[in-house]
Design goal:
single chain, about 290 residues, alpha/beta, Cobalt-precorrin-4 Transmethylase, domain 1, Rossmann fold, four-stranded parallel β-sheet, 10 helices
């Protein structure tokens, strides 16, 4: 049996920074509040909770005052910062630098006097933490595009600037761009539409890397949290490349996979999957093989 971990899988630098920030604070303090899951991986969240991290919702955040709260890599809308200031809450801002640049770009477009009356379009998952933060830069007036069906929300007689959530599929974003261009051309307003390439470079490169990795093995075990948009996207790429691809969120689920002694097994994951968990998956598979 050959069991290999994909070296390109694992935390992106934004998640690494957020987790490191939390760990450093908890090394000197018993408790740290975090606004939402610090990463979309329950195994990693549980590890940090055991160190003293307390995950809170936005409703719970409203009840806090005179304390410290971590903003995760996904970022937050402006109203979160304003609320913290009103209630003497110190924010430890671990927003990913790529997300911060995107927030700033959207805000500049929204406030651009030459773009007055224009539409800010955000390609992303409705309700996703990052998208909520991006919408906040437009005073909730931006239009979230999750699929081609949502293009019916766009007024093709008005200017539009399109941005993407940083963790979206480059292929799906390209399809949305193409369709918007077609519709603006059909309306005779081609010059009114502009788009920005705002998908994180790490995420964009992962699509090609994950397909190449998946093609080299008999079986793929994809490790990811079920709430990870990036994980669901990358797993689908694995499945399309290698039909014998299996999605797991924890070690116990390995038992459900039929692993043979002569299998070549590849282990990979999302940008929110900890490397320690993938190593544990590899160790578990090897131990099961040795017992058999």
């Amino acid at each position: 049996m050959i069991v290999e971990i994909d070296n390109n899988s694992g935390f992106c630098f934004g998640v690494i920074n957020a987790i490191k920030t939390a760990e450093e604070f908890l090394a000197a303090n018993k408790t740290l509040y975090c606004l939402g899951d610090i990463v979309h991986n329950s195994e990693e969240v549980n590890r940090l909770v055991n160190l003293g991290l307390v995950i809170i919702s936005h409703e719970e955040f409203k009840k806090l005052h005179d304390t410290t709260v971590l903003i995760r890599a996904h970022g937050e809308p402006p109203e979160t910062y304003a609320a913290a200031n009103e209630r003497n809450i110190k924010l430890i801002d671990a927003t990913c630098q790529v997300v911060l640049r995107l927030q700033k770009s959207i805000k500049q477009s929204y406030n651009d006097p030459d773009f007055k009356g224009g539409q800010i379009l955000i390609f992303g998952k409705k309700g996703h933490a990052e998208v909520i933060g991006l919408l906040g830069q437009t005073e909730q007036k931006g239009i979230v595009i999750s699929s081609v069906e949502d293009l019916s929300l766009v007024d093709f007689s008005k200017p539009a600037r399109l941005y993407s959530q940083t963790t979206q599929s480059p292929e799906e974003y390209a399809n949305i761009i193409t369709e918007l261009e077609k519709r603006y051309v059909a309306a005779g307003n081609k010059s009114l539409f502009a788009y920005h390439n705002t998908i994180c470079g790490t995420v964009a490169n992962r699509s090609k890397q994950i397909r190449e990795f998946a093609s080299r093995f008999d079986k793929i075990i994809f490790v990811s949290g079920e709430k990870s948009s990036n994980g669901l996207h990358l797993f689908q790429l694995c499945k399309n490349t290698n039909p014998s691809s299996h999605f797991i969120s924890n070690i116990e689920q390995i038992k459900e996979i039929d692993v043979k002694k002569d299998d070549r097994i590849g282990i990979c994951g999302a940008t929110s999957t900890p490397m320690w968990l993938m190593r544990k998956v590899k160790e578990t598979i090897q131990n099961q093989n040795n017992q058999n």
